[in-house]
Design brief:
The complex is a heterodimer of chains A (about 475) and B (about 100).
Chain A: H1 4-26, H2 33-52, H3 60-80, H4 86-114, H5 121-149, H6 162-182, H7 187-205, H8 213-235, H9 238-261, H10 266-271, H11 274-277, H12 279-284, H13 298-306, E1 310-315, H14 317-321, H15 325-337, E2 341-346, H16 356-363, E3 371-373, H17 374-377, E4 386-390, H18 399-402, E5 421-426, E6 446-450, H19 453-465
Parallel strand pairs in A: 1-2, 1-4, 2-3, 4-5, 5-6
Helix pairs in contact in A: 1-2, 1-9, 4-5, 4-8, 5-6, 5-7, 5-8, 6-7, 8-9, 13-19, 15-19
Chain B: H1 2-23, H2 31-42, H3 45-52, H4 60-87
Classes of the chains: A alpha/beta (about 475), B mainly alpha (about 100).
Protein backbone atom coordinates (compact mmCIF):
# COMPACT_ATOMS: atom_id res chain seq x y z
CA UNK A 1 0.00 0.00 0.00
CA UNK A 2 2.90 2.29 0.73
CA UNK A 3 3.92 2.45 -2.91
CA UNK A 4 0.42 3.19 -4.10
CA UNK A 5 1.10 6.92 -4.30
CA UNK A 6 4.43 6.78 -6.17
CA UNK A 7 2.94 4.30 -8.64
CA UNK A 8 -0.06 6.56 -9.14
CA UNK A 9 2.22 9.52 -9.79
CA UNK A 10 4.24 7.57 -12.36
CA UNK A 11 1.08 6.37 -14.11
CA UNK A 12 -0.23 9.94 -14.21
CA UNK A 13 3.06 10.95 -15.83
CA UNK A 14 2.50 8.26 -18.42
CA UNK A 15 -0.93 9.71 -19.21
CA UNK A 16 0.48 13.25 -19.30
CA UNK A 17 3.30 12.22 -21.66
CA UNK A 18 0.76 10.58 -23.97
CA UNK A 19 -1.33 13.75 -23.92
CA UNK A 20 1.74 15.80 -24.89
CA UNK A 21 2.41 13.55 -27.88
CA UNK A 22 -1.24 13.56 -28.90
CA UNK A 23 -1.41 17.34 -28.50
CA UNK A 24 1.70 17.90 -30.63
CA UNK A 25 0.27 15.62 -33.29
CA UNK A 26 -2.97 17.58 -33.39
CA UNK A 27 -0.99 20.83 -33.60
CA UNK A 28 0.00 19.63 -37.07
CA UNK A 29 -3.29 20.50 -38.77
CA UNK A 30 -5.10 23.85 -38.66
CA UNK A 31 -8.45 22.18 -38.01
CA UNK A 32 -7.32 20.32 -34.88
CA UNK A 33 -4.54 22.58 -33.66
CA UNK A 34 -6.54 24.42 -31.02
CA UNK A 35 -7.68 21.13 -29.57
CA UNK A 36 -4.13 19.86 -29.60
CA UNK A 37 -2.92 22.81 -27.60
CA UNK A 38 -5.69 22.25 -25.07
CA UNK A 39 -4.80 18.56 -24.76
CA UNK A 40 -1.16 19.42 -24.11
CA UNK A 41 -2.24 21.95 -21.48
CA UNK A 42 -4.33 19.29 -19.73
CA UNK A 43 -1.29 17.01 -19.79
CA UNK A 44 0.73 19.74 -18.11
CA UNK A 45 -1.94 20.29 -15.45
CA UNK A 46 -2.03 16.56 -14.68
CA UNK A 47 1.75 16.39 -14.44
CA UNK A 48 1.91 19.35 -12.06
CA UNK A 49 -0.91 18.02 -9.89
CA UNK A 50 0.76 14.60 -9.67
CA UNK A 51 4.08 16.15 -8.68
CA UNK A 52 2.42 18.10 -5.88
CA UNK A 53 1.42 14.73 -4.35
CA UNK A 54 5.04 13.56 -4.16
CA UNK A 55 5.95 12.66 -0.55
CA UNK A 56 9.05 14.81 -0.73
CA UNK A 57 6.99 17.87 -1.55
CA UNK A 58 6.06 19.32 1.82
CA UNK A 59 6.34 22.98 1.13
CA UNK A 60 3.09 23.15 -0.79
CA UNK A 61 1.80 26.53 0.46
CA UNK A 62 4.86 28.29 -0.90
CA UNK A 63 4.82 26.26 -4.11
CA UNK A 64 1.14 26.98 -4.68
CA UNK A 65 1.89 30.64 -4.13
CA UNK A 66 4.69 30.40 -6.72
CA UNK A 67 2.37 28.65 -9.18
CA UNK A 68 -0.28 31.35 -8.62
CA UNK A 69 2.16 34.22 -9.14
CA UNK A 70 3.57 32.59 -12.27
CA UNK A 71 0.10 31.89 -13.68
CA UNK A 72 -1.02 35.46 -13.08
CA UNK A 73 2.04 36.99 -14.74
CA UNK A 74 1.84 34.47 -17.57
CA UNK A 75 -1.84 35.19 -18.24
CA UNK A 76 -1.31 38.95 -18.27
CA UNK A 77 1.65 38.66 -20.63
CA UNK A 78 -0.23 36.29 -22.95
CA UNK A 79 -3.19 38.63 -23.33
CA UNK A 80 -1.21 41.83 -23.67
CA UNK A 81 1.32 40.77 -26.27
CA UNK A 82 0.86 42.02 -29.84
CA UNK A 83 1.04 39.46 -32.63
CA UNK A 84 3.93 41.37 -34.21
CA UNK A 85 5.80 40.84 -30.93
CA UNK A 86 5.40 37.06 -31.00
CA UNK A 87 9.08 36.35 -31.76
CA UNK A 88 10.22 38.37 -28.73
CA UNK A 89 7.55 36.72 -26.62
CA UNK A 90 8.64 33.21 -27.58
CA UNK A 91 12.25 34.26 -27.05
CA UNK A 92 11.46 35.53 -23.58
CA UNK A 93 9.51 32.40 -22.64
CA UNK A 94 12.33 30.17 -23.92
CA UNK A 95 14.64 32.10 -21.65
CA UNK A 96 12.40 31.60 -18.62
CA UNK A 97 12.21 27.87 -19.30
CA UNK A 98 15.97 27.67 -19.64
CA UNK A 99 16.46 29.67 -16.44
CA UNK A 100 14.09 27.37 -14.54
CA UNK A 101 15.96 24.28 -15.76
CA UNK A 102 19.33 25.76 -14.80
CA UNK A 103 17.98 26.76 -11.38
CA UNK A 104 16.81 23.20 -10.76
CA UNK A 105 20.38 22.03 -11.34
CA UNK A 106 21.88 24.71 -9.09
CA UNK A 107 19.35 23.98 -6.35
CA UNK A 108 20.09 20.26 -6.54
CA UNK A 109 23.84 20.87 -6.36
CA UNK A 110 23.35 23.09 -3.32
CA UNK A 111 21.13 20.52 -1.63
CA UNK A 112 23.64 17.72 -2.17
CA UNK A 113 26.42 19.98 -0.92
CA UNK A 114 24.46 20.84 2.25
CA UNK A 115 23.56 17.23 2.90
CA UNK A 116 27.31 16.47 2.86
CA UNK A 117 26.66 13.20 1.06
CA UNK A 118 29.04 12.41 -1.79
CA UNK A 119 27.57 13.60 -5.09
CA UNK A 120 27.18 10.63 -7.46
CA UNK A 121 29.09 10.97 -10.71
CA UNK A 122 26.07 10.67 -13.02
CA UNK A 123 24.10 13.29 -11.09
CA UNK A 124 27.12 15.56 -11.15
CA UNK A 125 27.51 15.30 -14.91
CA UNK A 126 23.79 15.88 -15.41
CA UNK A 127 23.94 18.96 -13.22
CA UNK A 128 26.89 20.38 -15.14
CA UNK A 129 25.21 19.77 -18.51
CA UNK A 130 21.94 21.25 -17.29
CA UNK A 131 23.73 24.35 -16.02
CA UNK A 132 25.41 24.80 -19.41
CA UNK A 133 22.35 24.23 -21.61
CA UNK A 134 19.92 26.01 -19.30
CA UNK A 135 22.31 28.92 -18.76
CA UNK A 136 22.97 29.39 -22.48
CA UNK A 137 19.24 29.19 -23.21
CA UNK A 138 18.53 31.75 -20.49
CA UNK A 139 20.96 34.52 -21.44
CA UNK A 140 20.88 33.72 -25.16
CA UNK A 141 17.10 34.05 -25.24
CA UNK A 142 17.11 37.28 -23.28
CA UNK A 143 19.64 38.74 -25.67
CA UNK A 144 17.53 37.59 -28.63
CA UNK A 145 14.56 39.23 -26.93
CA UNK A 146 16.50 42.48 -26.50
CA UNK A 147 17.55 42.42 -30.16
CA UNK A 148 14.03 41.73 -31.44
CA UNK A 149 12.48 44.30 -29.13
CA UNK A 150 14.99 46.87 -30.36
CA UNK A 151 16.49 47.37 -26.90
CA UNK A 152 19.88 46.78 -28.47
CA UNK A 153 20.93 46.95 -32.10
CA UNK A 154 19.70 44.03 -34.19
CA UNK A 155 22.79 44.04 -36.34
CA UNK A 156 25.56 41.53 -35.66
CA UNK A 157 27.95 42.67 -32.96
CA UNK A 158 31.52 41.52 -33.44
CA UNK A 159 34.79 42.43 -31.82
CA UNK A 160 38.42 41.41 -32.30
CA UNK A 161 39.40 37.98 -30.99
CA UNK A 162 35.74 37.01 -30.61
CA UNK A 163 36.28 33.38 -31.60
CA UNK A 164 39.39 32.88 -29.44
CA UNK A 165 37.49 34.49 -26.55
CA UNK A 166 34.57 32.09 -27.02
CA UNK A 167 36.92 29.13 -27.22
CA UNK A 168 38.57 30.29 -24.01
CA UNK A 169 35.16 30.44 -22.33
CA UNK A 170 34.34 26.95 -23.52
CA UNK A 171 37.70 25.71 -22.29
CA UNK A 172 37.03 27.35 -18.92
CA UNK A 173 33.71 25.50 -18.73
CA UNK A 174 35.35 22.18 -19.54
CA UNK A 175 38.22 22.67 -17.08
CA UNK A 176 35.81 23.74 -14.32
CA UNK A 177 33.57 20.75 -15.03
CA UNK A 178 36.42 18.28 -14.94
CA UNK A 179 37.62 19.81 -11.67
CA UNK A 180 34.11 19.46 -10.21
CA UNK A 181 33.82 15.87 -11.33
CA UNK A 182 37.01 15.08 -9.43
CA UNK A 183 36.24 17.26 -6.39
CA UNK A 184 32.48 17.84 -6.40
CA UNK A 185 32.29 19.90 -3.20
CA UNK A 186 33.77 23.15 -4.45
CA UNK A 187 31.08 25.81 -4.44
CA UNK A 188 33.22 28.68 -5.87
CA UNK A 189 34.24 26.60 -8.86
CA UNK A 190 30.62 25.55 -9.38
CA UNK A 191 29.45 29.17 -9.35
CA UNK A 192 32.27 29.97 -11.77
CA UNK A 193 30.96 27.30 -14.14
CA UNK A 194 27.45 28.76 -13.83
CA UNK A 195 28.81 32.21 -14.66
CA UNK A 196 30.77 30.98 -17.66
CA UNK A 197 27.62 29.24 -18.98
CA UNK A 198 25.65 32.49 -18.71
CA UNK A 199 28.35 34.46 -20.55
CA UNK A 200 28.47 31.76 -23.26
CA UNK A 201 24.76 32.34 -23.92
CA UNK A 202 25.40 36.04 -24.52
CA UNK A 203 28.38 35.34 -26.76
CA UNK A 204 26.35 32.84 -28.74
CA UNK A 205 23.63 35.30 -29.80
CA UNK A 206 25.57 38.57 -29.92
CA UNK A 207 27.17 38.05 -33.37
CA UNK A 208 23.88 36.99 -35.00
CA UNK A 209 21.93 39.54 -37.03
CA UNK A 210 18.20 40.31 -37.07
CA UNK A 211 17.48 38.45 -40.30
CA UNK A 212 18.87 35.23 -38.88
CA UNK A 213 16.56 35.42 -35.89
CA UNK A 214 14.14 32.73 -37.15
CA UNK A 215 17.02 30.27 -36.93
CA UNK A 216 18.15 31.48 -33.51
CA UNK A 217 14.67 31.43 -32.00
CA UNK A 218 14.09 27.90 -33.29
CA UNK A 219 17.42 26.75 -31.96
CA UNK A 220 16.82 28.32 -28.54
CA UNK A 221 13.39 26.67 -28.51
CA UNK A 222 15.10 23.35 -29.07
CA UNK A 223 17.68 24.11 -26.39
CA UNK A 224 14.99 25.00 -23.84
CA UNK A 225 13.61 21.50 -24.38
CA UNK A 226 17.01 19.86 -24.05
CA UNK A 227 17.59 21.89 -20.87
CA UNK A 228 14.33 20.56 -19.41
CA UNK A 229 15.40 17.03 -20.32
CA UNK A 230 18.76 17.63 -18.64
CA UNK A 231 16.90 18.79 -15.53
CA UNK A 232 15.00 15.51 -15.79
CA UNK A 233 18.29 13.62 -15.58
CA UNK A 234 19.26 15.69 -12.54
CA UNK A 235 16.12 14.86 -10.54
CA UNK A 236 15.59 11.53 -12.38
CA UNK A 237 12.11 12.30 -13.62
CA UNK A 238 10.90 10.62 -16.82
CA UNK A 239 8.24 13.23 -17.42
CA UNK A 240 10.84 15.98 -17.78
CA UNK A 241 12.99 13.81 -20.00
CA UNK A 242 10.13 12.92 -22.36
CA UNK A 243 8.66 16.42 -22.63
CA UNK A 244 12.12 17.94 -23.00
CA UNK A 245 13.07 15.49 -25.73
CA UNK A 246 9.85 16.21 -27.65
CA UNK A 247 10.48 19.95 -27.58
CA UNK A 248 14.15 19.46 -28.40
CA UNK A 249 13.21 17.46 -31.49
CA UNK A 250 10.54 19.90 -32.67
CA UNK A 251 12.86 22.88 -32.27
CA UNK A 252 15.57 21.09 -34.21
CA UNK A 253 13.21 20.36 -37.09
CA UNK A 254 12.16 24.00 -37.28
CA UNK A 255 15.79 25.10 -37.12
CA UNK A 256 16.60 22.89 -40.07
CA UNK A 257 13.61 24.17 -42.07
CA UNK A 258 14.68 27.77 -41.42
CA UNK A 259 18.28 27.10 -42.43
CA UNK A 260 17.12 25.47 -45.65
CA UNK A 261 14.85 28.42 -46.42
CA UNK A 262 17.84 30.74 -46.21
CA UNK A 263 20.20 28.30 -47.93
CA UNK A 264 22.63 28.61 -45.04
CA UNK A 265 24.11 25.99 -42.83
CA UNK A 266 23.50 26.24 -39.11
CA UNK A 267 27.24 26.63 -38.75
CA UNK A 268 27.39 29.74 -40.94
CA UNK A 269 24.44 31.33 -39.14
CA UNK A 270 26.11 30.84 -35.78
CA UNK A 271 29.67 31.64 -36.67
CA UNK A 272 29.72 34.22 -39.45
CA UNK A 273 27.98 37.54 -39.17
CA UNK A 274 25.95 37.87 -42.37
CA UNK A 275 26.38 41.59 -43.01
CA UNK A 276 30.13 41.23 -43.02
CA UNK A 277 30.36 38.16 -45.19
CA UNK A 278 28.19 39.69 -47.90
CA UNK A 279 29.96 43.02 -48.31
CA UNK A 280 32.21 41.91 -51.16
CA UNK A 281 29.38 40.44 -53.24
CA UNK A 282 27.13 43.40 -52.57
CA UNK A 283 29.71 45.84 -53.83
CA UNK A 284 30.21 43.86 -57.02
CA UNK A 285 26.59 44.23 -58.04
CA UNK A 286 26.47 47.85 -56.90
CA UNK A 287 27.05 49.02 -60.46
CA UNK A 288 23.42 48.26 -61.19
CA UNK A 289 22.22 51.49 -59.62
CA UNK A 290 22.48 53.45 -62.88
CA UNK A 291 19.76 51.28 -64.41
CA UNK A 292 16.33 52.80 -64.70
CA UNK A 293 13.45 52.11 -62.41
CA UNK A 294 9.83 52.57 -63.45
CA UNK A 295 7.80 54.26 -60.78
CA UNK A 296 4.01 54.61 -60.88
CA UNK A 297 1.37 56.13 -58.62
CA UNK A 298 -1.42 54.49 -56.67
CA UNK A 299 -4.06 55.18 -59.32
CA UNK A 300 -2.10 53.35 -61.99
CA UNK A 301 -1.33 50.54 -59.56
CA UNK A 302 -5.00 50.20 -58.70
CA UNK A 303 -5.87 49.86 -62.38
CA UNK A 304 -3.33 47.10 -62.86
CA UNK A 305 -4.65 45.24 -59.85
CA UNK A 306 -8.37 45.87 -60.45
CA UNK A 307 -8.36 44.63 -64.03
CA UNK A 308 -6.17 41.61 -63.38
CA UNK A 309 -7.60 38.12 -63.29
CA UNK A 310 -5.25 36.83 -60.65
CA UNK A 311 -3.07 38.64 -58.14
CA UNK A 312 -0.46 37.13 -55.86
CA UNK A 313 0.40 39.23 -52.82
CA UNK A 314 3.90 38.74 -51.41
CA UNK A 315 4.06 40.19 -47.90
CA UNK A 316 7.43 40.69 -46.23
CA UNK A 317 8.60 41.80 -42.85
CA UNK A 318 8.33 45.42 -44.00
CA UNK A 319 4.55 44.98 -44.17
CA UNK A 320 4.48 43.69 -40.61
CA UNK A 321 6.63 46.54 -39.33
CA UNK A 322 4.30 49.04 -40.99
CA UNK A 323 1.30 47.22 -39.45
CA UNK A 324 -0.20 47.19 -42.93
CA UNK A 325 -1.72 43.71 -42.77
CA UNK A 326 -5.24 44.98 -42.13
CA UNK A 327 -5.09 47.36 -45.10
CA UNK A 328 -3.71 44.54 -47.20
CA UNK A 329 -6.65 42.36 -46.25
CA UNK A 330 -9.02 45.21 -47.16
CA UNK A 331 -7.32 45.48 -50.54
CA UNK A 332 -7.65 41.78 -51.22
CA UNK A 333 -11.32 41.84 -50.13
CA UNK A 334 -11.98 44.70 -52.53
CA UNK A 335 -10.19 42.91 -55.36
CA UNK A 336 -12.08 39.70 -54.72
CA UNK A 337 -15.35 41.61 -54.88
CA UNK A 338 -14.32 42.65 -58.38
CA UNK A 339 -13.75 39.05 -59.31
CA UNK A 340 -9.97 39.00 -58.99
CA UNK A 341 -8.45 35.77 -57.72
CA UNK A 342 -6.18 36.70 -54.78
CA UNK A 343 -3.51 34.50 -53.24
CA UNK A 344 -0.80 35.17 -50.71
CA UNK A 345 2.70 33.82 -51.19
CA UNK A 346 4.55 33.25 -47.94
CA UNK A 347 8.28 32.74 -47.85
CA UNK A 348 9.39 30.52 -44.94
CA UNK A 349 11.52 33.31 -43.46
CA UNK A 350 9.08 36.15 -44.19
CA UNK A 351 8.81 37.10 -40.51
CA UNK A 352 11.15 37.06 -37.58
CA UNK A 353 10.25 33.51 -36.58
CA UNK A 354 8.96 30.43 -38.40
CA UNK A 355 5.38 30.95 -39.56
CA UNK A 356 5.21 34.47 -38.17
CA UNK A 357 3.71 35.98 -41.33
CA UNK A 358 0.89 33.44 -41.30
CA UNK A 359 -0.05 34.46 -37.78
CA UNK A 360 -0.01 38.16 -38.66
CA UNK A 361 -2.26 37.60 -41.66
CA UNK A 362 -4.56 35.34 -39.65
CA UNK A 363 -4.90 38.15 -37.14
CA UNK A 364 -6.03 40.41 -39.98
CA UNK A 365 -8.71 37.79 -40.81
CA UNK A 366 -7.06 36.43 -43.91
CA UNK A 367 -8.31 32.84 -44.21
CA UNK A 368 -5.41 30.39 -44.09
CA UNK A 369 -6.69 28.65 -47.25
CA UNK A 370 -5.55 31.74 -49.17
CA UNK A 371 -1.98 31.46 -47.90
CA UNK A 372 0.42 29.50 -50.09
CA UNK A 373 3.85 28.12 -49.23
CA UNK A 374 6.78 28.84 -51.46
CA UNK A 375 6.80 25.41 -53.09
CA UNK A 376 3.10 25.57 -53.88
CA UNK A 377 2.97 29.11 -55.25
CA UNK A 378 6.14 29.23 -57.33
CA UNK A 379 4.73 27.14 -60.23
CA UNK A 380 1.67 29.43 -60.22
CA UNK A 381 3.47 32.74 -60.78
CA UNK A 382 3.45 32.08 -64.55
CA UNK A 383 -0.32 32.35 -64.53
CA UNK A 384 -0.49 35.39 -62.27
CA UNK A 385 -1.26 38.72 -63.89
CA UNK A 386 0.20 40.80 -61.09
CA UNK A 387 2.54 39.97 -58.23
CA UNK A 388 2.26 42.61 -55.52
CA UNK A 389 5.38 42.69 -53.33
CA UNK A 390 4.87 44.54 -50.05
CA UNK A 391 7.92 45.16 -47.91
CA UNK A 392 9.83 42.09 -49.07
CA UNK A 393 13.22 42.30 -50.73
CA UNK A 394 15.82 39.56 -50.48
CA UNK A 395 13.24 36.76 -50.72
CA UNK A 396 12.16 37.97 -54.18
CA UNK A 397 15.61 38.75 -55.57
CA UNK A 398 16.17 36.80 -58.79
CA UNK A 399 19.92 37.06 -58.22
CA UNK A 400 19.49 34.17 -55.80
CA UNK A 401 18.71 32.06 -58.85
CA UNK A 402 21.11 33.42 -61.43
CA UNK A 403 24.03 35.37 -59.96
CA UNK A 404 26.64 33.01 -58.62
CA UNK A 405 28.56 35.91 -57.07
CA UNK A 406 25.62 37.11 -55.04
CA UNK A 407 25.84 36.33 -51.32
CA UNK A 408 22.25 35.10 -51.43
CA UNK A 409 22.90 32.80 -54.41
CA UNK A 410 21.10 29.50 -53.94
CA UNK A 411 18.58 30.80 -51.44
CA UNK A 412 15.11 29.61 -52.42
CA UNK A 413 13.03 32.63 -53.49
CA UNK A 414 9.49 33.50 -54.48
CA UNK A 415 9.69 33.78 -58.26
CA UNK A 416 7.63 36.96 -58.64
CA UNK A 417 9.56 37.92 -61.78
CA UNK A 418 7.72 35.15 -63.61
CA UNK A 419 4.39 36.93 -63.18
CA UNK A 420 3.20 39.09 -66.10
CA UNK A 421 3.60 42.25 -64.04
CA UNK A 422 5.24 42.93 -60.72
CA UNK A 423 4.41 45.85 -58.47
CA UNK A 424 6.79 46.52 -55.60
CA UNK A 425 5.73 48.73 -52.70
CA UNK A 426 8.83 50.06 -51.02
CA UNK A 427 9.99 53.15 -49.17
CA UNK A 428 13.03 53.74 -51.35
CA UNK A 429 15.76 51.91 -53.17
CA UNK A 430 17.60 50.74 -50.06
CA UNK A 431 18.84 47.17 -49.93
CA UNK A 432 17.36 44.40 -47.82
CA UNK A 433 18.87 42.66 -44.85
CA UNK A 434 21.52 40.91 -46.88
CA UNK A 435 22.75 44.28 -48.19
CA UNK A 436 22.35 43.20 -51.81
CA UNK A 437 20.95 45.25 -54.66
CA UNK A 438 17.78 43.72 -56.12
CA UNK A 439 17.76 43.39 -59.91
CA UNK A 440 14.04 42.71 -59.79
CA UNK A 441 13.44 46.45 -59.39
CA UNK A 442 15.14 47.21 -62.72
CA UNK A 443 13.22 44.71 -64.84
CA UNK A 444 10.88 45.95 -67.57
CA UNK A 445 7.94 44.12 -66.08
CA UNK A 446 8.49 45.66 -62.65
CA UNK A 447 6.94 48.89 -61.48
CA UNK A 448 7.66 50.57 -58.17
CA UNK A 449 5.20 52.24 -55.84
CA UNK A 450 7.33 54.34 -53.53
CA UNK A 451 5.88 55.02 -50.09
CA UNK A 452 5.29 53.45 -46.73
CA UNK A 453 3.49 50.12 -46.98
CA UNK A 454 0.55 51.23 -44.89
CA UNK A 455 -0.15 54.52 -46.70
CA UNK A 456 0.39 53.05 -50.11
CA UNK A 457 -1.90 50.08 -49.56
CA UNK A 458 -4.58 52.37 -48.08
CA UNK A 459 -4.32 54.55 -51.21
CA UNK A 460 -4.61 51.47 -53.41
CA UNK A 461 -7.75 50.45 -51.53
CA UNK A 462 -9.46 53.78 -52.13
CA UNK A 463 -8.35 53.89 -55.76
CA UNK A 464 -9.55 50.36 -56.40
CA UNK A 465 -12.93 51.28 -54.91
CA UNK A 466 -13.29 54.04 -57.50
CA UNK A 467 -12.68 51.74 -60.44
CA UNK B 1 22.40 4.19 -10.11
CA UNK B 2 23.83 3.40 -13.55
CA UNK B 3 20.80 1.29 -14.32
CA UNK B 4 18.50 4.24 -13.74
CA UNK B 5 20.70 6.43 -15.90
CA UNK B 6 20.64 3.94 -18.78
CA UNK B 7 16.87 3.63 -18.52
CA UNK B 8 16.56 7.41 -18.57
CA UNK B 9 18.78 7.59 -21.66
CA UNK B 10 16.52 5.07 -23.38
CA UNK B 11 13.51 7.23 -22.58
CA UNK B 12 15.27 10.34 -23.85
CA UNK B 13 16.36 8.87 -27.18
CA UNK B 14 13.03 7.17 -27.89
CA UNK B 15 11.09 10.32 -27.00
CA UNK B 16 13.31 12.32 -29.35
CA UNK B 17 12.46 9.96 -32.19
CA UNK B 18 8.76 10.29 -31.43
CA UNK B 19 9.21 14.06 -31.48
CA UNK B 20 10.84 13.97 -34.91
CA UNK B 21 8.13 11.68 -36.28
CA UNK B 22 5.18 13.58 -34.86
CA UNK B 23 6.36 17.04 -35.83
CA UNK B 24 7.87 16.37 -39.22
CA UNK B 25 4.68 16.96 -41.18
CA UNK B 26 3.57 20.27 -39.72
CA UNK B 27 2.64 22.89 -42.38
CA UNK B 28 4.42 26.28 -42.29
CA UNK B 29 1.17 28.02 -41.35
CA UNK B 30 1.39 26.40 -37.95
CA UNK B 31 5.08 26.87 -37.26
CA UNK B 32 4.63 29.76 -34.85
CA UNK B 33 1.84 28.14 -32.80
CA UNK B 34 3.83 24.91 -32.79
CA UNK B 35 6.81 26.76 -31.43
CA UNK B 36 4.92 28.60 -28.72
CA UNK B 37 3.01 25.42 -27.84
CA UNK B 38 6.12 23.29 -27.60
CA UNK B 39 7.68 26.18 -25.71
CA UNK B 40 4.93 25.84 -23.12
CA UNK B 41 5.69 22.13 -22.89
CA UNK B 42 9.34 22.89 -22.20
CA UNK B 43 8.03 24.64 -19.08
CA UNK B 44 7.77 21.07 -17.77
CA UNK B 45 10.88 22.09 -15.85
CA UNK B 46 8.28 23.29 -13.33
CA UNK B 47 8.10 19.68 -12.06
CA UNK B 48 11.80 19.70 -11.26
CA UNK B 49 11.35 23.10 -9.66
CA UNK B 50 8.53 21.82 -7.45
CA UNK B 51 10.69 18.93 -6.27
CA UNK B 52 13.61 21.29 -5.63
CA UNK B 53 11.37 23.62 -3.62
CA UNK B 54 9.74 20.71 -1.80
CA UNK B 55 11.65 20.64 1.48
CA UNK B 56 9.90 22.34 4.39
CA UNK B 57 12.74 24.58 5.40
CA UNK B 58 14.28 27.77 4.20
CA UNK B 59 17.61 27.27 2.53
CA UNK B 60 19.25 28.27 -0.72
CA UNK B 61 17.95 25.21 -2.60
CA UNK B 62 14.34 25.86 -1.65
CA UNK B 63 14.55 29.54 -2.55
CA UNK B 64 16.12 28.76 -5.92
CA UNK B 65 13.45 26.11 -6.44
CA UNK B 66 10.67 28.58 -5.71
CA UNK B 67 12.11 31.13 -8.14
CA UNK B 68 12.26 28.35 -10.72
CA UNK B 69 8.61 27.47 -10.00
CA UNK B 70 7.53 31.04 -10.77
CA UNK B 71 9.64 31.32 -13.95
CA UNK B 72 8.58 27.95 -15.32
CA UNK B 73 4.91 28.63 -14.54
CA UNK B 74 5.05 31.89 -16.49
CA UNK B 75 6.54 29.87 -19.34
CA UNK B 76 3.79 27.25 -19.18
CA UNK B 77 0.77 29.51 -18.72
CA UNK B 78 1.80 32.24 -21.15
CA UNK B 79 2.88 29.63 -23.70
CA UNK B 80 -0.41 27.74 -23.76
CA UNK B 81 -2.58 30.87 -23.60
CA UNK B 82 -0.79 32.74 -26.35
CA UNK B 83 -0.87 29.64 -28.55
CA UNK B 84 -4.61 29.42 -28.04
CA UNK B 85 -4.96 33.11 -28.86
CA UNK B 86 -3.14 32.58 -32.12
CA UNK B 87 -4.95 29.42 -33.10
CA UNK B 88 -8.38 30.91 -32.62
CA UNK B 89 -7.48 33.44 -35.31
CA UNK B 90 -6.86 30.76 -37.92
CA UNK B 91 -10.05 30.53 -39.89
CA UNK B 92 -10.95 28.65 -42.98
CA UNK B 93 -13.44 31.11 -44.42
CA UNK B 94 -14.04 34.75 -43.87
CA UNK B 95 -16.29 35.37 -40.91
CA UNK B 96 -17.11 39.00 -40.36
CA UNK B 97 -15.81 39.90 -36.94
Amino acid sequence: MSDFLPTGIQLTYLVAASLFILGLKKLGSPATARNGNLIAAVGMLLAIAATMLDQNVLNYEMILLGLAIGSLIGAIVAYKVQMTEMPQMVGLLNGLGGAASALVAVAEFWRLLDSSQPIPLDVNISILLDVLIGGVTFTGSFLAFAKLQGLISGSPITFPFQQPFNLALLAAYVVGSVYLIITPDSLPIFLGVVGVSLVLGVMFVIPIGGGDMPVVISLLNSLSGVAAAAAGFVVMNNMLIIAGALVGASGLILTEIMCKAMNRSLFSVLFSAFGKASSSGGAASGGATDQTVRSIDAEEGAMMLGYARSVVIVPGYGMAVAQAQHSVRELSDQLEKMGVDVKYAIHPVAGRMPGHMNVLLAEANVPYTQLYDMDDINPQFDQADVALVIGANDVVNPAARSDKNSPIYGMPILEVDRAKQTIVIKRGMSTGFAGVDNELFYKDKTTMLFGSAKDMVAKLVSEVKQL
Amino acid sequence: MTEALIAALFVFVLASFIGFEVINKIPPTLHTPLMSGSNAISGIAVLGAIVAAGARETNVSVILGLIAVVLATINVVAGFLVTDRMLQMFKKKEIKA
